[in-house]
Amino acid sequence: MSVTLTEQNEITLRTAAYGAVSLLAAAGAAGGSPHKIATTGTVALASATGLVGRVLADRRKAVSLDGRSVADLADHVLPALTASMSLLAQQDPAEADNFRSTVLVAIETAQQDRTSPAVAEMTRKITAALDAA
């Protein structure tokens, strides 16, 4: 099955994936290790394969993950996760599964040995957004 993504679709996928790691880092900030969370999560995203891996590796168009608060970031990222899953599921369910597992592996890797109630709750919200499609 051939997947056709516009430039905006690709930006949405990158926003969703890198934004999920950023949300986790923001939630883990109280634990004092947001940089480690962001770094390990981003490295995990770099190991993605298939169409998802190619889209995430292409950083020519940077994503905007600005916000004055975690809530602002969540308002931007969680809908992007759901939109990415919907878009990919319509075109190629295997790539939707690839995207979902890529994001989940990244957040699991990022939170390794750093689980706090805030990180666990953010993980739940990210998973719910992925499954809302």
Give an account of the 3D structure.
This protein has 133 residues and is mostly helical. It has one domain (7-131). It is 72% helix and 0% strand. It is built from six helices and no strands. The protein has helices at residues 7-27, 34-45, 50-57, 70-91, 93-110, 117-131. The longest helix is centred in the middle third of the chain and has 22 residues, at 70-91. It starts with 6 loop residues before the first helix and ends with a helix. The mean pLDDT is 89.
Throw out a few tags for this protein:
133 residues; globular; 0% strand
Structural class: mainly alpha
Q: What is the count of DSSP helices, taking H or I runs of 4+ residues?
A: 6
How is the quaternary structure best described? single chain
Mean pLDDT: 89
Q: Unreliable runs, pLDDT <50, ≥5 residues?
A: none
- How many domains? 1
N-to-C span: 20 Å
- The percent range for strand residues is under 5%
Radius of gyration: 14 Å
Main sheet: strands, sense, barrel: none
Portion in helices: over 70%
Which sequence of SSEs, written as H and E, runs from N to C?
HHHHHH
